[in-house]
Specification:
alpha+beta, Multidrug efflux transporter AcrB transmembrane fold, 5-stranded antiparallel β-sheet, 4-stranded antiparallel β-sheet, 30 helices, 64% helix, elongated
């Protein structure tokens, strides 16, 4: 084995060991919260917690469509529901909010209904209950209703379910359907929404089960809900990272073969890329508990940036060894790498775990790629390099002249266009949903499902917190009384609160004490029944239940979690590390300012405006990121001027600034307001443009060095655009924004530096 082959084999062996270690240690996350900033206010903290653990997160939506895109027949849908319940995949399956087993609910809640629901046991109250009951029995002629009425003439449990938004809206109504003809089912599983492995298993099992059972009948299935989205996104990101990496690598390999015309150089050029990716992943594994899937998918974009370093090395190795060429280009590469790393480390300090991962990953990867180019690659090819890389252009022999006017012209035109453009629209996006890695088509589909089912998505909510449960429930009851006043003043349409299903022990004791003794209640019952023409003996079971309820134990939250009310309880009450938290959902709030003023003096109540809190969070976050980057950019600018001199330093800054400004304005014009992902892309453009500018203004020893730099920059630009155009075709919004922005910025950076430097 030759020395060159032996060193390459050693490098690949080390890479394999690092890869095995990383694979054994890495833990992947797909949570949106990883890309959100740290909360600064109580409202922002609550917002982030709700995003991380949303209500009804363990519910899966099954959208069923019949043959020829028609809605399934009632018989087909009933068959699907029955088969799904028997499959064991989900604990409950419903086709409408009224699709609740009232008989089962009665069995579970009958004994506690006297504590759960307030009833009027006066003669007038009983008489009103009998009147309503008689009318309903005459209308429905339902034997099951008659049996329940004998024990509960108030029909209190049914009224409770009808009044509660179990997942949203009243618990009445027909089959859920979407405008495009899907029939919707709502299924509950034990898998947590962000347990990606469990959700992927459930997603695959449900899809396979449906295909086996109903594909032959022409039925089609789509899965939605938070868990299904996390499963789809995990699979999608994995596929994107795999196939786009293969595609980008293949195109890059073809490009390098065309321009380098030496398979050995292509193989050597891959070494810095390989170790750059491994170094980035190793840094993430050692520095973070979990690595986001977007960071992994972003990783292969290093191919479009880190390849610049070996390309510069190869193009400057004309009739000399790679060691000699490395010593010649290293000062320029080092200056560019250190400048770029400074900016990315500033981004890593911005407070978002996702952006911190991107910053650390890119900074460590580029540093290792540069070091490999300087020390590892030359050691693998100790002999002189043939002049094939430099044979294409030798006719031009003038020394380069740096010209400021192309960059200044671009900056001037950009500033001239910026005023009317920015005066008509916001430069930055304030919408938190724009940070979502979920494709817009899936978000739109989920919104359609939620609207059809009636899932609550109120903008406003109230939050109560307390170290103990009972004081929290009492505070919730007092709050509900104030909200009922707001309803009477027509300031609020409706609300939902834990106090509607779980009274405090104090309230339960009051309700239990209000139940008359058996003899007294029997006398009142007889008087009310006689007035309504009903037989008293029919309600003997009611008297027995009432007497037994006078001494029954109090109701607890754990009891309700074993009943059909568990969805409501789970979305309105949670136990935290510091105690308990209750959420009060507000619907059709007509005067938010009035309600905000009502609770502004009450520190125990937090009013959460999700839109305002998210906008404030995004703006604070972006401002923090921009401030850090501005400081890092200023330090880089000063360093460039000191290292290169005033003229060359300012020329580099103008060239890079012109490319950044033009890229940002074009994105604003054609993509709309900029997001954090666009900001990350502009940082990549900064590093790319700086690399091009530094090599264009190098003081070369001879004309061939100048030609080598020019040709290397051209190949670097083409390779970057190949990789990022591939990324721009991704269906994932984050990757698409990065790909389009960086490929555009790379083209502009090359064009401006090329026009500003005459060979």
């Amino acid at each position: 084995m030759s020395l060159q082959a032996g060193r390459l084999a050693l490098a690949l062996f080390v890479a394999a060991l690092l890869g095995l270690f990383i694979a054994s240690q890495i833990s992947i996350s797909y949570s949106l919260a990883d890309f959100l900033p740290a909360a600064q206010t109580p409202a922002q903290k609550l917002l982030l917690q709700q995003l991380e653990q949303p209500a009804a997160a363990n519910l899966t939506v099954l959208a069923v469509r019949g043959p020829d895109s028609q809605a399934p027949t009632e018989a087909q849908l009933s068959n699907v529901i029955e088969s799904l319940r028997e499959s064991g995949l989900y604990s409950t399956v419903r086709s409408s909010l009224s699709d609740i087993d009232l008989a089962k609910a009665w069995q579970q809640l009958a004994d506690v209904r006297f504590l759960l629901v307030a009833s009027d046991y006066s003669v007038a109250g009983l008489q009103a209950a009998f009147a309503g009951l008689r009318d309903e029995l005459e209308l429905l002629q339902d034997p099951e209703l008659l049996e329940i009425a004998a024990r509960d003439p108030y029909l209190s449990l049914r009224e409770l379910f009808e009044a509660l938004p179990t997942v949203g809206g009243a618990a009445t109504g027909g089959q859920w359907t979407t405008p495009d003809g899907h029939s919707l089912l709502l299924a509950e599983s034990s898998a947590a929404a962000f347990d990606v492995a469990a959700q992927q298993t459930l997603y695959a099992a449900t899809s396979e089960w449906f295909a086996q059972q109903f594909a032959a009948a022409g039925l089609q299935l789509e899965l939605g809900g938070m868990g299904a989205i996390s499963a789809q996104m995990a699979t999608h990101i994995q596929q994107e990272a795999r196939w786009r990496s293969i595609l980008a690598s293949s195109l890059l390999l073809l490009l390098l073969l065309v321009f380098l015309r030496d398979a050995r150089l292509v193989l050597l050029g891959a070494v810095p890329l390989l170790f750059a990716a491994l170094a980035g992943l190793l840094t993430l594994v050692l520095g973070f508990e979990r690595v986001h899937g977007i960071t992994l998918a972003f990783g292969f974009t290093l191919l479009g940036v880190a390849i610049d370093y070996p390309l510069h090395l190869f193009h400057h190795a004309r009739g000399r060894t790679l060691q000699q060429a490395a010593r010649q280009v290293w000062p320029t590469i080092r200056l560019g790498v250190l400048s770029t790393i400074a900016v990315y480390l500033a981004m890593a300090m911005a407070g978002s775990q996702g952006l911190a991962q991107l910053g650390v990953f890119t900074a460590s990867g580029l540093l290792v790629a540069a070091l490999c180019t300087r020390y590892v690659v030359p050691a693998m090819m100790p002999g002189e390099l043939h002049a094939t890389v430099q044979q294409a252009s030798t006719a031009v022999g003038r020394t380069a002249t740096l010209r400021f006017w192309p960059a200044l012209l671009v900056v001037g035109l950009g500033l001239g266009l910026a005023w009317p453009l920015t005066s008509e629209r916001s430069i930055w996006s304030h919408d938190l949903s724009d940070l979502s890695p979920v494709p817009a088509s899936l978000l739109k589909r989920e919104a359609s499902y939620a609207s059809s089912i009636g899932m609550p998505d109120p903008r406003y909510s109230l939050v109560l917190e307390h170290a103990e449960l009972q004081p929290l429930l009492q505070a919730s009851e007092r709050l509900s009384a104030r909200l009922r006043q707001a309803q009477r003043r027509l300031e609020l349409g409706a609300y939902s609160s834990i106090s509607q299903v779980l009274p405090s022990e104090q309230r339960q004791l009051q309700r239990r004490a209000s139940i008359p003794h058996s003899a007294e209640l029997a006398a009142r019952l007889e008087q009310a029944a006689a007035a309504e023409g009903m037989a008293t003996p029919a309600f003997g079971a009611f008297l027995e239940d009432a007497e037994r309820a006078r001494t029954q134990p109090l109701l607890s939250d754990s009891q309700l979690l074993k009943t059909p009310l568990r969805e409501f309880v789970g979305s309105h009450l949670e136990q935290t590390a510091n105690g308990w938290r209750a959420h009060v959902r507000l619907y059709d709030l007509r005067n938010p300012a009035e309600l905000t003023a009502m609770f502004s003096q009450d520190p125990s109540v937090i009013m959460l405006d999700q839109k305002a809190a998210s906008n404030e969070l995004v703006m604070q976050y972006r401002s923090q990121v921009i401030d850090l980057l501005a400081i890092a950019g200023l330090l880089v600018a000063v360093g460039l001027i000191i290292r290169l001199g005033v003229r060359r330093g300012l020329w580099c800054l103008c060239s890079v600034g012109g490319a950044l400004l033009t890229t940002a304005l074009l994105l604003l014009q054609f993509s709309g307001p900029l997001t954090i992902y666009h900001l990350v892309a502009l940082l990549l453009v900064l590093g790319i443009g700086l690399d091009y500018a530094l090599f264009r203004c190098r003081e070369e020893q001879d004309v061939f060095g100048r030609l080598a730099s020019a040709r290397a920059i051209m190949v670097c630009a083409l390779s970057t655009m190949v990789v990022f155009v591939t990324l721009g075709l991704s269906a994932l919004p984050a990757l698409s924004a990065l790909g389009i922005s960086v490929s555009l910025g790379a083209a502009l950076s090359y064009g401006i530096t090329r026009a500003g430097s005459w060979p």
